[in-house]
Amino acid sequence: MLILTLQILVWTAVMAVVLLWPAGTLAYPGAWAFIVLFLIFGFAISFWLYWHNPRLLRERMAAPIQRDQKPWDRLFLSTFIVGFFVWMAFMGRDASRTNFTAVPVWLQAIGGIAVCIGFLGGWLTFRENTFAAPVVKIQEGQKPIDTGVYGIIRHPMYAGAIVYLVGMPLLLSSWRGLAVTPILILGIAWRIVHEEQTLRAELPGYDEYASRVRYRLIPGVW
Question: Is the pTM for the entire model greater than 0.90?
Answer without folding.
Answer: yes
